[in-house]
């Protein structure tokens, strides 16, 4: 889901829709045109993206024989994916090189708190669910609050029950699916001391990711471009030994190369003692 621009500097998003349903030639032409227009393309998609779409993406990259296309599939719920994509769109307006911008996604995921209020956890397989929670999910009216990232948490909603939130100020996005009882997320926003709460449509992949359509998804995130830029530029940058792009972290998002492992030098031979 492409979220609305955060500010006037936020770059527009390009949605690659129906990749597995359109003729291969049409998708190939579209991706080639994007690469030629912008120089580099970072494709952000969810772990819940259907496998035919993922295979088509890899096929397109192989046919184009391009090392200017990066695929990024962080382990975030769909609303968290949408937030991260918008943060990268914000940073795209800054003086960051393509390699740094693409690898910034891994850094920014650490500052995203993504979860949901669920009417059932019977089909939830993204977060550890105990047998007791599974049994309670079959009771009429039961609701659960789940934090999938950065640290998995699962609680049964009851008076005074909350989720551990970020230790820094955030904004919160809320996306509502089929109606859940009450406004527990609004209370959570107050406990997390968020700057504000905004509502957006529920991403299409959310019911698949969470295992139910009876849900309200939420995400706490950093919205200030200056804060995002400071986070990214404060990390040491290195050059990829394979493609030469400047990156942060231990893996280039474009060519997937990791720093070479240097074998330790053999110990120096013991000097031969002179005879007495």
TrEMBL record:
Q: What is this protein called?
A: Uncharacterized protein
């Amino acid at each position: 889901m492409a979220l609305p621009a955060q500010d006037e500097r936020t770059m527009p998003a390009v949605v690659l829709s129906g990749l597995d349903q359109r003729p291969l030639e049409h998708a190939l032409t579209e991706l080639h045109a994007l690469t030629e227009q912008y120089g580099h393309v970072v494709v952000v998609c969810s772990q819940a993206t259907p496998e035919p779409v993922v295979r088509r993406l890899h096929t397109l990259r192989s046919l184009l024989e391009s090392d200017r296309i990066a695929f990024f599939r962080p382990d975030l719920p769909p609303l968290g994916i949408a937030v991260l994509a918008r943060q990268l769109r914000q940073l795209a307006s800054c003086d960051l090189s393509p390699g740094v911008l693409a690898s910034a996604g891994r850094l920014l995921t650490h500052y995203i708190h993504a979860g949901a209020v669920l009417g059932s956890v019977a089909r939830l397989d993204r977060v550890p669910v105990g047998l007791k929670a599974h049994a309670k999910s079959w009771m009429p009216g039961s609701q659960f609050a789940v934090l999938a990232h950065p640290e998995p948490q699962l609680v049964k909603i009851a008076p005074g029950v909350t989720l551990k939130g970020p230790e820094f100020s955030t904004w919160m996005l809320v996306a509502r699916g089929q109606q859940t009882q009450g406004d527990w997320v609004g209370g959570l926003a107050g406990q997390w001391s968020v700057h504000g709460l905004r509502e957006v449509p529920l991403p299409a992949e959310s019911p698949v990711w969470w295992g139910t359509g009876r849900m309200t998804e939420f995400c706490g995130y950093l919205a200030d471009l200056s804060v995002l830029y400071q986070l990214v530029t404060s990390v040491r940058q290195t050059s990829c030994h394979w493609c030469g792009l400047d990156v942060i972290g231990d893996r280039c998002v474009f060519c997937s190369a990791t720093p070479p492992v240097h074998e330790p030098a053999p110990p120096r031979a013991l000097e031969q003692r002179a005879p007495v």
